[in-house]
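Tutorial sheet, problem 5. The three components below are modelled jointly, 360 residues in total.
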Amino acid sequence: MSRLKHAINLGLFLFAIWVLLSGHYTPLLLVLGVLSTLLVVFLAARADLIDREIYPILLKASVLFYWFWLGREIIKSNINVARLILDPAMPISPNVFTVRAFQKTELGRVTYANSITLVPGTVAMDVEEDVITVHALTMAAAKDLKRGDMNRRVCHVEGVFPCS
Amino acid sequence: MMQPLLDVLSWICLLGGAIFLLIGAIGVLRFPDFYTRLHAVSVCDTLGAGLVLVGLIFQGGLSLVTVKLLLIFYFMIFTGPTAVHALAQAALQSKLKPLVDDHEPR
Amino acid sequence: MFIAVSAVLLVAIALGLVRAFRGPTLYDRVMAANMIGTLTVLMVAVLGFMAERPEFLDIALVYVLISFVSTIAVLRVYASRVSMQGSDRK
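Model answer (structure tokens):
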């Protein structure tokens, strides 16, 4: 019966988004909103998508902190990559290596791999179980990632220990 | 009184974002192989797009416009890396060899 | 000022188009299309502010999602074609 609860929650969430984005509160548009919400929930149920994963990432304090940290990393490496692009000599040293993800859950690994890709200078090319193949633009970027700072942070946010 | 300050902040963000977008586009043109170009796309997707959207948010103020801009930002942050990863994985599986620098010692 | 930003965006889109035409692999072209998608979203948003029509943002919002889905769809189609044609493709 928890499936029904999930479906109702999804419907309420989608309708809230509709109300937020439409900006018109006439009866006709609200009815249309209800209808399209029901259609989407029906399609999601048919595609068997209604489970725990419909809930967006919860706003834990540690998640917010991680986002701030990641934002700073992104800005730093953006500036590095921008400098490389504008350098006439283009001193890049592309290399490929693998890292082992410390995270135990799928969500944690996805978060880690996406964080790697989100930071310019490193791209996650392949994820298999807990081995992530990474393409790095420079040796420095590769070394930075291999230190495992981000790996540990994602693991701490995930909250399944030990992180090693 | 706050308006001029917000305007200045917004112009700084917009200009910075535009510069990063331009740099990213130049990188897409200049980098030697497919995998290195992905990093340039990353620059466009993250800081370039982010700064432009933040600049627009300063223009929008507290309104529905800001909510929509934040939602665009949210989707970009989540779909950007997924698309880049999908590209890299597809290229890897089709046996496209990445250019690897072996001048420096490992 | 919005005009300056949209001019830069146009230049960036032009550079992306050059990469899309030059290739050399299919993945370069899809990547360029993906980047042009991102730039177009920003362009639509900036144009919305320039014309003072906030409805443009809804279009931008939908465009983000369409651009993502189309990138994935092209990769899927190509992957299935490769696997169907087998080894003679390489």
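Marking note: Chain C has a mean pLDDT of 85. Full credit if you identified this.
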